[in-house]
Amino acid sequence: MKKTLKNLILAVGMTMLSITAFSQESFNSCGGNLSGSGGSVSYSYGQTFYSVHSGTDAYLSEGVQQPFEISVVTLFEDEIALKINLSVFPNPTADNLNLRTENVQLPLTAILFDLNGRIIKESIITESETVISLTNLEASTYFLKLSNLEKEIKTFKIIKTQ
Q1: Three-class SS state of 2
Q2: The pLDDT of residue 44 is above 60
Q3: What residues contact 71, with CB distance under 8 A and at least 6 apart?
Q4: Is the full-model pTM beyond 0.85?
């Protein structure tokens, strides 16, 4: 009888452990409890977190919203690059893109191209603040490559919205 009771307790304990070990996590944005004459219910709004897969240079979180990231694609690496300050804003944009340059020798060549590598627009930048019109372009992802006479300085990923 004692051995059967121990086995039963052990089986129940293992079952509870396995339920706990395989439960899901969630990142809740809000939640609460509702009750009425018919009973009560607990609720939560959020994203269920399933698993994370990682590799040498990237990771994937299944079931979780990924952040929207804007990053510099290229930048030449030398002592001069540490002093150069180039920025484009607003990004994403619907109409115009502002380009601001600091500590860089002008003129610069600005080439805007699409995801297929087709050149959409090419211009010479002679001012430290320049407005680049994107009004006639379709909503998509573009790249703005800035270079001087010697080499490519920076490439920005630009998001054009409606």
Answers
A1: helix
A2: yes
A3: 157
A4: no
